[in-house]
From TrEMBL:
Keywords: Signal, Transport. InterPro entries: SBP. Pfam families: SBP_bac_1. Coiled coil: none annotated. This is Extracellular solute-binding protein. PANTHER family: MALTOSE-BINDING PERIPLASMIC PROTEIN, MALTOSE_MALTODEXTRIN-BINDING PERIPLASMIC PROTEIN. Belongs to the bacterial solute-binding protein 1 family. It comes from Marinitoga aeolica.
């Protein structure tokens, strides 16, 4: 009898083991330890699903995903940077998520990061953005209230001018220059968005760089540049840590960097200023890790169940605590007690609500190069704003026409 029971139990275990649904998940944010913990908990909650995780590197992860799709061996779930969504969506390599998104849209923010061609192609998971860093001591020395950082462009300009006048080696504001992406990411293009404008039309067929509100933004930016240190992002962080820079725009990764390398600096962060009190908004640049189901996924229901789990506030917060420069897309995630001990990080969580990604255009890589050139002509060479924008507007339009 005991032998019979044992045989039956073994048979049940074999059926259970071989009856599991197996899915593969390729990602970047989870390492071996965190993936074992987080995915292990998922498999405990879903004993009928087995997840195989493959960690990708940013240096070659994109190419590996492309290769796997070409070989008809794509993972079920894949983590993508939001700038990649248009590429995979235009190749019809990932599933449209419109039906699911319509049911949960109010529960998350960051939907612009997964949109392309009027459809949603993934779900926003972890969001990263930029905010305004400001030096408390320099604010006080300049007669400014450190408890009331600038909320508008005029207030920012006024603060930068006063801090800049403190000494020859002190600068009011920091502007990125001499790099490919940062000159428009922090903070020119977000300032355009905050001014309720864009550099591309909604259908992405027309360049709007030479339009009234973009010109207005560029003229403000040029005026602000007179009181700004203009150099690479890493050099701005260094100058800020050394107490030579009043304000600059950066990501949450600089919180720990400044605290570790410059422990004597007193600083805080705030939402990026908007054009004025009665119009515009606190726009910033959105980076995001998003989760997609590939078109080749063999187990789409199980894949979606895994994504639902990873998006949960308690799960996403585990990643935030490991990498405190990205934050859950879940509305209300900042109620986690962790934010009480990390008030500056909570500002970034709030800033994510106003963040936008770069336009999802296949030619964006070239467009942003032209945009960087235009910004640097305006702030480094003091070039005529309207002539500069007119010239690069034509360059971008030529790209859009092909």
């Amino acid at each position: 009898m005991k032998k019979l029971v044992l045989v039956v139990l073994l048979s049940m275990l074999l059926v259970f083991a071989f009856g599991k649904t197996k899915i593969t998940f390729w990602g970047f944010m989870l390492d071996d330890e965190s993936s074992a913990k987080i995915l292990g908990e998922f498999m405990k909650e879903n004993p009928d699903i087995e997840v195989e995780y493959v960690q990708l590197a940013w240096s070659n992860g994109f190419d590996k995903i492309v290769t796997s799709i070409a070989a008809n061996n794509a993972p079920d779930v894949v983590e993508l940077g939001n700038t990649w969504v248009a590429n995979f969506a235009s190749q019809d390599a990932i599933l449209k998520m419109d039906n699911y998104a319509s049911k949960v849209k109010d529960k998350y923010f960051g939907w612009d990061s997964v949109a392309y061609n009027d459809h949603y192609w993934a779900l926003p998971w972890l969001l990263g953005t930029r905010a305004l860093f400001f030096n408390l001591d320099l604010f006080e020395k300049a007669g400014l209230d450190p408890n009331n950082p600038p909320e508008t462009w005029e207030e920012l300009y006024d603060a930068a001018q006063k801090i800049d006048s403190l000494g020859d080696d002190i600068y009011g504001f920091g502007m990125c220059a001499g790099e490919n992406f940062s000159p428009w990411q922090q903070w020119f293009l977000p300032a355009v968005w905050g001014n309720e404008a864009s550099i591309l039309s909604k259908d992405m067929k027309k360049s709007l760089l030479y339009s009234t509100k973009v010109i207005e933004t560029a003229k403000f930016y040029q005026a602000l540049s007179k009181y700004s240190l203009k150099t690479k992002q890493a050099d701005l962080a260094k100058a800020f840590g050394e107490g030579k820079l009043g304000m600059y725009v950066s990501g949450a990764w600089d919180i720990s960097g400044i605290e570790s390398n410059y422990p004597n600096i007193l600083f805080d962060v705030a939402l990026l200023p908007k054009p004025n009190k009665w119009s515009g908004y606190h726009a910033s640049f959105a980076g995001a890790e998003v989760l997609a189901v590939t078109k080749q996924a063999k187990n789409k229901e199980a894949a979606l169940k895994l994504i639902e789990y990873l998006l949960r506030s308690d799960v996403a917060m585990q990643v935030t605590k490991l990498v405190p420069s990205v934050f859950p897309s879940v509305v209300g995630a900042d109620k986690d007690p962790w934010f009480e001990d990390h008030p500056m990080h909570q500002v970034f969580y709030e800033q994510n609500k106003y963040a936008k990604p770069a336009p999802s255009h296949p030619q964006w890589f070239k467009i942003q190069q032209y945009l960087t050139e235009a910004i640097e002509k305006i702030v480094l060479e003091n070039g005529d704003v309207e002539n500069t924008l007119r010239y690069y507007n034509l360059k971008i339009q030529q790209l859009l026409n092909h």
